[in-house]
C-alpha cells in the first residue's frame, strides 16, 4: 500500500448536497463504480453494512464516517471522499443508536483484509489531527489528495 496513490483527486467531492447518510453512501459508491474501482454490488453492500456496523466517528471538530464493505465487491483499491454541504446523521461506531453529525465521509474500497486494517489505523491517526481535518474541508481536491496520500504513506 505504501507505494500506491490510494486517494485520487477525481474521487474527492466537495459541497455534496444529501439529505441523509444513505444518500451520501449511494453518491460516493456510485462514483467509485463509475470509475471502476468497485463492482455494482458494492453500493447496496456498503449501505447494508453501514446499517449493521455503523462507521460514524466523532472528532474534535466534526464527525467523520468510514464506510466500507467486503473485498468481494472491490475491483481495485481506492478511497472516495465526500465533504458534505451540511452534516448528516450517522450512527457512531460501536453503538446501536448514538447519532453524530458527519461532515466528511471516507468511503473505502480495499482488496486485502490486512490492507484495510492498516488503512483504518492510519485514518484514525489522521482524524486525531484537527489541522488535517480543517485542510480536508478547506483545500482544493488536488491538495487534499496530495496531503492525505503523504500521510497514508508514513
TrEMBL record:
EC assignment: 2.7.1.-
GO molecular function, a single term: transferase activity
Entry-linked CDD domains: PTS_IIA_fru (cd00211)
Alphabetical keyword list: Sugar transport, Transferase, Transport
EC class name: transferase
Domain of life the protein comes from: Bacteria
Name of the protein described by the UniProt record: Mannitol-specific phosphotransferase enzyme IIA component
Annotated source species: Clostridioides difficile (Peptoclostridium difficile)
Lineage start: Bacteria, Bacillati, Bacillota, Clostridia, Peptostreptococcales
